[in-house]
Structures are given as C-alpha cells and as structure tokens.
Amino acid sequence: PMLLKQLNEVEMMSMGLEISTEDIYSINNGSLKDAIVHFGGGCTAEVISSQGLLLTNHHCGYGQIQSHSSLENDYLSTGFWAENKSQELSNKGLTATFIKYMKEVTSEILIHLSTDMTESDRKEMVKMKGDSLILLELDDGHFEASIKPFFKGNRYFMIVTETFNDVRLVGAPPSSIGKFGSDTDNWMWPRHTGDFSLFRIYADKDNNPAEYSEDNIPYKPHRHLTISTDGVKPGDFSMIYGFPGRTDEYLPSVAVKQITQVLNPAKIAIRETALEIMDAQMRASDDVRIKYASKYASIANYYKKWIGENTGIQKSRGIKRKVDLENSFRKAIIEQGKSAEYGSLLSTYEDLYNQLEGLALARDYFIEIAYRTVEIIKFSNSSSRFISTGQKKDLEAFKKSITGHFKNYDVTTDKLLFEALLEKYENDQGSSKYAPPYFSEKVYSAEHLFEKSFFADKKKIETLLKANPKKIQRKLAKDPGYLIASSLYGHYRNTIYRDYWALEDSLDVLDRNYLKALMEVLPDYRKYYPDANSSLRLTYGQVNGVSPLDAISYGHVTYLEGMIEKYIPGDYEFDLPTKLIDLFEAKDFGPYADDNGKLPICFIASNHTTGGNSGSPALNSKGDLVGLNFDRAWEGTMSDINYDSSRCRNIMVDARYILFIIDKFANATYLIEEMTLN
Ligand code: ARG
Ligand code: GLU
Q1: What is the DSSP secondary-structure string of 36-53?
Q2: Which residues of the chain have pLDDT under 50?
Q3: Is the CB of 620 inside a 6 Å radius of any atom of ligand 1?
Q4: Are 160 and 34 in contact (CB under 8 A)?
Q5: What is the pLDDT of residue 28?
Q6: Catalytic one among 185, 195, 394, 531?
Q7: Is residue 309 within 8 Å of 264, Cβ to Cβ?
Q8: Mutate to test the pocket of ligand 2, among 241, 610, 647 (most ligand atoms within 8 A of CB)
Q9: What is the pLDDT of residue 466?
Q10: Nearest CA among 290, 241, 288, 304 for reference residue 625
Q11: Nearest ligand by distance to the CA of 302
C-alpha cells in the first residue's frame, strides 16, 4: 500500500479509481487501511460498523464455529446468530490485528549487510538490527512491530501493528449457505457459496486491546467500511485489500518444473489417499463428520488447488513462458555486458534445484504424513520434550494438550490413516537416500500400535498421567507410538531439516540477485511488484467474465437461480435450507436484487489474490465494499507462480447476498442497522 502512489496511482485512475491512493493508505490521516484486519493470523477481515463488527469468510471462522458446536447445538449445520451482544461467543486465541503504519527501513538495514556474508549471518544481522530499530520506534508497550523483506530482501519495511484478542462470534449462516457446494465446488466457478461470517472486536473501556473479560465493550474503530448495494458490472474497477500469504512470481523454470512435476503430484497422491479414508468415515458417522469437518476441509483445499495449479501451468504453457523469459535474460546480459555479474545465476539455479529435489520430496512426505495427517504420530511426538527432560513443566504442557487432541479424534479413522499412509510412505520413499529408519527397523503393526499405545486412548493416558513423573516417563519412552514418532521426527530433524534449509538459504540469495538483475536488465518485461509476504497488500483489476479455455466462457456473476439448479435435497454438499427456497419462490429479495430482478450470489474479477486474502473486502472505485473475497477459479490457481489476467479470476460473495442472508434469511436486522449502507 505504501508504494501505490509511486507505482500504481496513474494506472489505477485510468482504470476507474475515483478516490486517491491517500484514501486507501495514509500514515497521517484516516484511510481505508484502518478498517482492514489480519484475522487469526491467516485470513483477512474488515470492520463494517462503528461498533467493531467484523466481516470475514465462513471458512475463516470455521474452526471457531465448529468449536462452539456439538451434536445438540450443531452451528455448522444450523448456523448461529447472536440475538444481542451478550450472546456473542468468545474465542480463545483468536486475534484481530490492525496495521498502524509502515515505513521503509531499507537503508538502515542494508548498511549493515555485505555480499560476502553467509545468508544465515545476513538473516541474523537483519533480525538484530531490525530489533533495535523496533526498540527505538516503539516507546510504549502498546504497539508491536516487525521488519519484513520485500522484493526478495532488496528492500525492507517496518510494520507497526496493534492486536486485539477479545474477538467474539456474532453470526454465521448454516453450512448449506456458508459452505454451499463444499469441496465439489471449492476452487470452482460458477460458484454459489455464501462464504461469510460475522465477528466483533471487544476492547477495554479505554478502547485498548484486552484479554477476554465480561467488562470489555465493543471496539470503536478509527474507520469502518461503507457497504454499497449498487452491485457490479463487467469492466468495473475492483480492488482487494488484505493479507495474502505468499506468492512466487519470479521463480525460475527449474523451480516451476519441480513444483508441478515432482512435488505437487506426490502431495496430491498422499492427500487423495487420506481424503478417501476420511470421507468414508465421515459419511458413516455424524460424530466423525463433526470431529473431522475442519481437518478434512483443510486437507481437501490444497489438494484441489495443486491439481488446478498443475493443470493451469500445463495449459498456459507456463514453463515455456519462464524458459522464454530466461532466454531473453541471457541474451540481454550479454548485450549489456553484465555476464560477469549475472551470467551464472541461471545455472546456479539448475544446480541448487537439482540438489534440493530429493530433500524437498522427503520433507513433503514427512510433513504430509507424520506431521499433518496421522495424528497418533504427531501427538506422541508432542510428549517428547517431557520424555527427554523428565521436567514437571514439560509434563504439564503435554497434559494441557490432551483434551484438545481427543476432542476431535476418532481412533478408527486414525488407524486407517496410519495403515494406508505409512504403507505409501514406505513404498514411495523406502529406497530413497532419505528414507526414515523406521522402515528398515519396523516392528510395530497398526494392530499392535493402536492396541498398546497410551497415545491412542484418552482414558489410558489419563490414568497413566496420575502416576509419578518418573514412571510416566519410563512408560512413555517405551510406548510404540513414541518409538515410531521419535524415529520419524528424529530422522527429519537430523538428516533433512538442516540440509534442506541450507539450500533454501542459498536459493534466497539467488532469488534476491535474480529479481534485482531482472528488474535491471529487462525493466520493460513486466510491472515488477513485490511477492506477497503476509503483510497488508492491495491488488486491483476489473470485474469480468473469463474464457480460460478454447470455446469455454464464463459470465461474471451467479444468481440464486443457479443455487436452485445445483440443489440436491439431503446431500451434504448441495442441500438447501427450506427457508431459502421459500424466499426464492416468493421472490422475496428485499432491496437486494440486481436490476434484472435476480438475487446475485457471487462474482469474479481479475484481482491477483492468494491464500490469506480470504475474507478480504472487494472494494469498488469509490472504496465501498461490494463483495467479500473467498476463492479463486480453478483454471487460474497457478497465479501463485504465474499470474495471467486472461485466465486468473478471484471469486467474491456479492455484498447484497450477504445483506440478504442477514436480513431476510436470519432476520438479524439489528446487525444491518449498525452498518453503513449506501
Ligand atoms: N479455496 C478457498 C481457500 O483457499 C476456500 C477454502 C474453504 N475450504 C473448503 N475445503 N471448502 O481458502
Ligand atoms: N480461500 C483462500 C484463503 O483462505 C483465498 C483464496 C485464494 O487462495 O485465492 O485465503
């Protein structure tokens, strides 16, 4: 945002922006940025009332909605609407972070760095010098700050933030609206998902951040967004303001090849195995369905994204595009007499990515299987600290994790996952030079493990934990779950982690030099903007349909009609609430219909977004909220490594549909009243 004036204002104006970039981001005056929130560290949310009301995605609040749900009060299925502030539900650990300001500190940092430093010394120096800059900057304890690299570490910015930690759930539609189409429709256009939920920030009586307390009051924001009910049409200027996590626009062709031909296929196959097992278990039992809903969604999400990314790179000939660029680069450095400086960049990339391949693959197997999916391994490993130290405080820390772990645990599902995934792990990685020792020394069957391990059974481990620490330590150290975990985790730590990150460090150096070289040698090749790095970021484009493949073209907007077309009574993905059907039959859309009398649901635009942009406001040329970002269209999920405006589209819920659901479906008119509509 702080670079907008200099880099983008002229173009934005020519595309239709009607406010100034100062209205979007300003250090000194109130601006739209004061309404944008980093939500729980992974999503975006925005303030939409003077009483701290937050709008974000249903899938961003999913964990919270789930954690308040039980078989009796299944808010995932029925939705949840607090009827007044006293019914709003608190969420331990959930945060809302505002950006106070950002400032460039490139020269203050670079002055301490030299090209002959090792990359890890460099990082340490950045950290140390950054910390002292932060110390100078923040005189009271109120704000926090961090230093982030931009343009691969060619520039640095300090980002000063304020974090609130009493954030309460206000409302969520039922999943049949908020997650309509579920995984079948995820990453897809045409889409009909009302992917939104509402939260509220609470502060102490002085409007400052405070831990949850009954005495806290709704936060009074510096700015809240105005919501426009004017809707959108093709060609409209569009902006997304939020906290995208990571893009890699400047990767060399070898990297894109490795990602799409080696790493993605392996991860896709692992997740496919896991998802099949979980799906069958969830369909067979409501208890398992609730416990695994969130885990399933998160595994399914990137599974499908990677498939789209691979297809997109292939169909758009993304690798060839990179190779063409590299050829122009080679030619240009010769013409410009810069071979001494930049001539070895591309061959070093080749070399490093070759060295990385086996390690990166081994790392992905470890992370996907032992770290993320088979829970008994991860959970057993969480006791390892206590087992090695025998310290009381480590035992306490482990004890604290038990309730949370078993709350969403189903031992049968985990056992099936263990069997299938460890077999796959062994088959695929057993003969690799990075194979874990567990495979050669394997003594435990799943049968034995799940029967004998304390980590498989809540009662068993709770009983054991009543014993004295010495005995607990002795027992757990021999536990089959722990033996497997320590074999896998120990191997990862000792033989993969260090070498992998050493190579990544070397690649960081290259990335920094390559981007600098590209900008210098081929300045007109493209507009060079920094990759996303989880900091506040603005992207702009146009509302528009898309024709991603020959003879296929998509419109820019979907309507309630389309939801009715997709409706499958009783289906867990495509069922609809009766009330929504009734409203459809009666055409009872209140003031929220489009000019053609139809109720809009979602629309698409050419904004370059990524993970973390979920919950970001879609703003029109006046800076009013017209939609809520939540996804990308499948044909364009390659945008993380190769954005292409002719194929890539982000997907937003239309603001009018959100208002319609709150007002006409949930009758939560008091929420509409606190918003500012125009
Ligand atoms: N694809 C969107 C994003 O990356 C939405 C994810 C919601 N999860 C799901 N499995 N439907 O976050
Ligand atoms: N759904 C994504 C998220 O959770 C945003 C969409 C995307 O990755 O484009 O952040």
Answers
A1: EEEETTTEEEEE-BTT-E
A2: none
A3: no
A4: no
A5: 85
A6: 195
A7: yes
A8: 610
A9: 95
A10: 241
A11: 1
Provide the pLDDT for residue 293.
Answer: 87
The pLDDT tens digits of the residues spanning 89-125 come to 999 999 999 999 999 999 999 999 998 999 999 999 9
Q: Is 247 in the pocket of ligand 1 (CB under 6 A)?
A: no
Q: Report the residue among 271, 574, 614, 651 best suited for mutation to probe ligand 1: largest number of ligand atoms under 8 A from its CB.
A: 614
Give the mean pLDDT of the chain.
96
End-to-end CA distance of the chain: 26
CA distances from 457 to 198, 403, 461, 494, 562 (A): 37, 12, 6, 30, 46
- What residue type is 167 in one-letter code? V
The token pair at 198 is 């509402």
Report the C-alpha gap between 455 and 461 in whole angstroms: 6
Ligand 2, atom 8, residue with closest C-alpha: 611
Residue 160 CA to residue 353 CA, distance in Å, equals: 36
Which two structure tokens, joined as six digits, stand for 650?
Answer: 């982000």
Taking the CA of residue 302 as reference, the ligand 1 atom at the shortest distance is 4
Q: Is 59 a catalytic residue?
A: yes
Which of 486, 535, 614, 621 is an active site residue? 614
CA of 616 from ligand 2 middle (Å) equals 9
Sign of CA dihedral 233, 238, 242, 244: positive
- Classify 632 as helix, strand or coil: strand
175 is a catalytic site residue: no
pLDDT of residue 439: 86
DSSP state of 262: I
